[in-house]
Amino acid sequence: MNELTIHLDQKSKKPMYEQLYEYIKQDIQQGRLGAGTRLPASRALSQYLDVSRSTVDLAYEQLVSEGYVESMARRGYYVCQIGSLYRLPVRQAKGTEREIADQDPCRYDFSPSGIDLDSFPYGVWRKITRNTLIDDKKDLFQLGDPKGEWQLRETICDYLHQARGVNCAPEQVVVGAGNDYLLLLLSVLLGNGRHVVMENPTYQHARRIFQQRGYQVSTVELDAHGMSVEGLGKSGGDMAYVMPSHQFPLGVVMPVKRRQELLSWASEKEGRYIIEDDYDSEFRYKGKPIPALQGSDKEGRVIYLGTFSRSIAPAIRISYLVLPVPLTSLWEERLSRFSSTVSRIDQTILDHFIKEGCYERHLNRMRAIYSRKHDILLARMKSLSSICRIHGEYAGVHILVEFTNGMTEEDAIKRAGKQGVRVYPLSAYYCDRQKTPRGQVLMGYAVLKEQEIGEAVKCLEKAWL
Amino acid sequence: MNELTIHLDQKSKKPMYEQLYEYIKQDIQQGRLGAGTRLPASRALSQYLDVSRSTVDLAYEQLVSEGYVESMARRGYYVCQIGSLYRLPVRQAKGTEREIADQDPCRYDFSPSGIDLDSFPYGVWRKITRNTLIDDKKDLFQLGDPKGEWQLRETICDYLHQARGVNCAPEQVVVGAGNDYLLLLLSVLLGNGRHVVMENPTYQHARRIFQQRGYQVSTVELDAHGMSVEGLGKSGGDMAYVMPSHQFPLGVVMPVKRRQELLSWASEKEGRYIIEDDYDSEFRYKGKPIPALQGSDKEGRVIYLGTFSRSIAPAIRISYLVLPVPLTSLWEERLSRFSSTVSRIDQTILDHFIKEGCYERHLNRMRAIYSRKHDILLARMKSLSSICRIHGEYAGVHILVEFTNGMTEEDAIKRAGKQGVRVYPLSAYYCDRQKTPRGQVLMGYAVLKEQEIGEAVKCLEKAWL
Q1: Is-above-0.90 flag for pTM?
Q2: N or C: chain A end with fewer CB closer than 10 Å?
């Protein structure tokens, strides 16, 4: 045991046992004390080093608890095989998905899920953030209400009532970190073994969440009025996922009659629910916004889902569910212990943003911006009118382009890509791809600047004409 | 149709159709146009008002789409029954749970889940927040990586490697809004029909999440070394949920041998996993922190769960999972489309807080503060040594008090309550309450100020002696 030459500093601030522990640990890590080596008995070492026995015991104990040394009954302490204990895996290259997207250099991206952040009121957001944090508000740093801050929930109710015709009280509102999370939470609330019926095409994100949750997911066709309620009835499902105000991606608005049929379907049987995803109802450029289905629900069957991620900024991870009254007691029973996923600070900032009128101003500004981009795109696309028809306009932030000259979706995307323009496949939103109508692509206009839209369409002319 | 006297303003900024729509809507809402009333044919009304036919059509269309008016084929437009369409439910009183807690006036709260926020570096947090938002950084307001920001994940890896002996690469790290969310996400990753084995007593929050997810949950006993691996084997479970560094609520530290047994159990069969909840490993006042079990896992069976909610502030809704390498590809397959639940802004603030050394300083400060409170509480509790024994000290932010004079848990809590002191039942953490050891309570010392601890123990002397 002569390898163990240890100089312990009695005057150090570091306790003696810790100094000893560090020495031995280093010797083991650096291989000076190999696996299987027997450490000196604690009594012997304490005499050798002239320290108390408990100093050695404490150091050995720590080494044992960290796995460097093993204590064998009546045989003493042995160094463990630690060769690969602290191996750090080689860091792989960063996220593959993003790399693939970057491979294809694209000058003009008609992403249907993009958002125009050029006009985001950064200054206002900064100011509200600063004011929110200005005092040492201990409360703000505590865990908040599992459903979300009461004040924000009141504010959301008032907004929804005025802007969307949604009838609700703050008790019905659950604030959470994004739609995906809230759909997941909702699936926990409603329990296993559900059967969700979705439109075809639909928002594939939601579909994947239900599938991952082990739900049966089936699809029924969309007609000009939205989900076929006849198809829904035949499907045997007990939940319908719809976007009545502006179907994604087709842009269909569900008229009152279909809404009533849908509500009737739900009230026919106990346990049936309609999830109303009101994802981008804020943006409508012709006529007034269509009120939410929830506002016509008298039986408590509609679960309303809204988000600020699209209307403010994607980084604002704040969405909300409006539960029908009968589900609020089930929520209390099953989910009231789930901690909130949004910090009180972020909720307070958003609450001020809405209450001080910044949200309304922002929405009006964005509506004007998107409406202008929409008009420019439609005007420019006239040059392509000999080969395509436009659908799903006047709302949201994308249009649907249907080729009338037999060009396939794949072909259109490829040709556009060669001119540096990315357009998006409609087929990606179909669950049953065989039913995808031929030759249609999605073009979102939120991200491109006004001037770029014209330039991009010029490229499309080269690509498609 | 004489009730309908409408003055449309040709010069108004509001379009004519919208003015018409507003008039009719108001008349319906205020009952001047009753349900069932037939509206004039659009041609007749357009002549009567001297406006274009399309103005009337557009107004009617909007009324129909909002459900005020119904169009019946070949019969015209009829006012709908809308009496209760916009009813707003009476707002109920606010959250009952909180009210119950407020009923019992308590001067000294030994909450085991509390956090000392008096020493939170508000100024530093504010400054970092301000600096993060200082430029109009569009990127920050975009949706980030589903797993969390790469930089933060690197920072977490470095921290975990140094402080906890955890071996991981950023690819293995998933950042999410709190432990509850991450456990839910994990349960989606691992699929339905799992059987989780937990210690008895354990963290009931996690237990409820697994139960709500439809998992079979069973418990095995704890001995002085932690979860009984024999019991685990017999349980038939395929997942074990443990807190090896500091079991909650008993404070047991799992020694290396038991850790090895646990790891062996996991590697015996495909699909077995250990969830290591390392919830408060930052706080240890005697000896060095015990490294995480994850660091000894060579087979990729340990899923490590950590959080900043306890070590920084509960409002910081940022936790993280470290997945074993084999699960990362499953994650890509099943969950890579789940949007991140934490905003890029919040992640960036936290990243700077750690990188600039503020986190380490904060932890050191808190460790000193908690250690001092711990010592004061232990010193003061000596006056009660004739009736109780202390367990689970030297780590975390609570102690366990076992009564040696036959006093029951219920009795102790009641008597303490009468003196204005709240102590917490150990039985609340037992799944099988019959197995709860008699006469033990939890006392957390994070929230009380140093001086209050002495005052509170004085009250307990009156209550218990």
Answers
A1: no
A2: C
